[in-house]
Amino acid sequence: MTRRAFITGITGQDGSYLSELLLAQGYEVHGSVRRTSTLERSRLAHLYADPTLYNQRLFLHYADLDDPTTLRRVLNAVQPQELYHLAGQSHVGLSFEIPETTCEFTAMGTLRLLEILRDLPEPPRFFHATSSEIFGRPTASPQTEKTPLAPINPYGCAKAFATQMVRVYRASHDLFAVNGILYNHESPRRGENFVTRKICRAAAAIKLGLQEELALGDTSAQRDWGHARDYVRGMWLALNQGPPDDYVFATGQLHSVQQVIETAFAAVSLDWQHHVKFDRHFLRPAEPLHLVGDASKARAVLGWSPTTSFQELIQEMTQAELDQLSQGERRGTARPEAR
Ligand code: G4F
Predict the structure, then answer these.
(1) Strand 222-223 vs strand 255-256: parallel, antiparallel, or unpaired?
(2) Domain assignment present for 298
(3) Spacing of C-alpha 118 from chain mean position
(4) What is the number of H-type helices and E-type strands within the chain?
(5) What residues in the chain have per-residue pLDDT under 50?
(6) Ligand 1 atom closest to Cα of 288?
(7) What pTM value is reported for the model?
(8) What digits encode the pLDDT tens for the residues 201-228?
(9) How remote is the CA of residue 1 from the centroid of ligand 1, in Å?
(10) 24 and 144 part of one domain
């Protein structure tokens, strides 16, 4: 029997990689899109344009996390066996500017989904993409599934609420509900306002003469960065290989923003010191510290481990920007990186 999966946030970085993985495994994939989404230029465009997939095994539905009736209706109609909840406002810096919207989508949106699932006669297995930001400035490193929640920004608070609600619904309503505690995961499909993509794109644009400098905030900040393709494999494993539980997905390696800069500029043979400048506009009111994950449980229970090193990741991202920008340049449509 063909398995059906439903993805909220299907047009994002993770949604597109997860769609590819599920389609390759023979799934029928459904996803919710906001009425404002422009699909032609999204990360799904290559799947959307394939007539053997779109409306054959890949289906998009208009539904919104702030409009539960639309979600309830679609989920009742589709009756998926697996639901991957990836949608939400995911930019930490922006969450200081729009905390209410962040909580509305990221916290309340997740609760609304859980309420809908609770009422379904056969609730799907539920994967919640949560974040290392729930730990804030933890006293212990690396963090595990048992590390106490101590968020320090509106995004982390919203994710902590949603994470705890998933735990409550798993324990109290017998849902097969999983929290995937995801550390930073990147790829050429990352949004342009996240720091790795911003840096890789700028390095490539400067190399091609399309941009002169790159303005950044705190370059001493450190993160545990992996490749998004590895993390969506973890999502699938979490719903198919183990018991409903919480799992940390991380590389266990810390690198600084400065190391991203040096790796990306080295990949295009440029001296970063000639191009990178500090701009306090990109500083955040609070920075998490020592967010590095221990994925031992995912390794032991799910057989998951990351396959892409930090160097490979940043080099792949920079090369992808070079390819994309030089194609655009040849067509006369290249544009420099937005701030
Ligand atoms: O790339 P970032 O914006 O990612 P951040 O804040 O770690 O959040 C990402 O990872 C989380 C964990 O998986 C997710 F929950 C979250 O949804 C998102 O995917 O920033 C990384 C670091 C920060 O310390 C930031 O202050 O880079 C620093 N930074 C320095 N200059 C900058 C900049 N970040 C951005 N976006 N832009 C800058 O110019």
Answers:
(1) antiparallel
(2) no
(3) 25
(4) 12, 13
(5) 336-339
(6) 24
(7) 0.95
(8) 999 999 999 999 999 999 999 999 999 9
(9) 41
(10) yes
